[in-house]
Amino acid sequence: MINGWQVPGRKISLSLWVGCVCLLLSHAVFAQAQAVDVGVLATRGGAEAQNRWQPTMDWLSERVPNTHFVLHPFTLQQMEQAVENQTVDFVITNPGQAVRLGRQYPLSWLATLSSANTTRKNGTTHAIGSALVVRSDSSFMTIESLSGHSLTAVDENAFGGYLTLRFEINKLGLSQSAYFSDTQFLGFPLDALIYQLRDKHIEGAIVPVCLIERMNKEGLIDVSNYRVINNIAPDDFSCATSTPLYPNWSFAKTGKGNERLAKPITRALLSLSSHESAALAANSLGWTSPISQLSVDQLYQGLDMHPLQKPWWQEAVSWLKQNQQWGWMLFILVISLNGYHFLLEYRFSRSKRELENTLHSLKEKNSMLEHAQRVSIVGELGSSLAHEINQPLAAIRNYSQGGLLRLKKGLPAQELIPVLEKIEQQVIRADSIVQRLRKLINKRQMAKTECDINGIISDTLALLEYDFQKKQIHLTRDNAIEPCLLWGDAVGIQQVLLNVLNNAADACMQREEQEGSVIHHIHIGTECDDSNIEITIQDNGIGFEDDSEQLSKAFFTTKENGLGLGLAICRDVIEAHQGQFLLEPASPQGCCVTVILPRLSTLVIK
Q: b/e map of 233-260 (b: 16 or more CB within 10 Å)?
């Protein structure tokens, strides 16, 4: 019998009954509690995230009736997938990811973390930024000095661990691609970045603000071994930072979260005091109402990474949809310009073909003119050529008659050998005259070979010798013993010399007609140096009063029956040899023609 109750076979106390009833009631309440999934950004790994944020989950479970908050540590990519797939009800993350997610998915901010890293009584809601950390013995002193050197960061989308510093680099006007050309992204946990710097694998580490101070407090590193570049932290902020500070971490509801839970959760977060274990574990002074994320939006816009920013082609399509009349005008303009461009290309191509055909035709006609001019020269030298050929023929006749007389006298045949040798010499002389004549009048393409300018001058003077004797022109020439070699067209150069010497002789005869009897004189000079051959032909003829450039133009002549092609052809031939053809008055009377040709050394030819 216990308090009026009797249990058969055994006695049970009242306290045991009460304990059993309470245990059953607690299990019933837990079974009825609603599970709330909260995703948190685990910047230093899952274990650290559990230690930091599980007390907050317990606080909410105690303050919000019939709920049980379950913590899920995530990486950046896992957090985005969880919000997109709506596998969590609430999230705790940095402002960068909060803004990116909030601009793409239904996300409602409930509270902003109040950081304890300040001397302010109520903490600060701006505690996110980047610290560019180097070793204390490093020679790097400024942000600019680390451009292109080995750096490390957590992720290219990490807000406090990379993007805030990248935004500062952009504001400094530095090339982002050049600055971060040797940057490695190692992912979470953040501690590994500092260890890479400690082991001298890198020159600098880009980490979130307060990381090295927190690791020093935990005994993981000695903060005196490290230095933060460009520390611009406010006076009341306890951590070094290389960038301005941005809004602190946010607590936000996802599209999956229960609307009815938002109010009690917000009330519970705002009621968390700084001395509670949940606030101390989160290294905070509790939570406050949500603050503006404008500075975060501006950062993403400055980096062309804002989620609401469209690619340029999408912006162009939107503009075209709103301004169809201008779009059609632009389309027609582009089509017209392309059509005009193709028309110009076609006309240019056709004009080019016509010019090439015209040039080819001009070259053929120029060759025909040169040939005609050489034939004309041969006609003018007819008497001279007849005299040249008659001399060896007369000598052959005389030697053959002498040989016949000796045979008739019965002299030995051996005495005829000298006579026959002289006949052979005259035959060779006549043959050389005929060959020179054939070369001069044959129509052929210009063929350049190694030739001696002194030999060309001698052959030319041989053709003109009889004509100059008949006109009583006194011809002098500088002694030229050593050969002056060039790479050229011997027939073309000989044509030039014939033209110039004939013009000189004509000028001398014109002066005689005007002034009476005078002594006609033509002088030929040759000078050779290492690079050029210079030929001067000077006469004491009538000279010229016209411009020398005018005299060299086609179809301009001072002769009564001239065609005006001689000097023009001469200039073309010399310019085809990369030379110069110059005309100038001679002192005191006459004209001086200078021909300059490039010389070819014997070593180059070999």
A: beeebebbbbbbbbbbbbbbbbeebeee
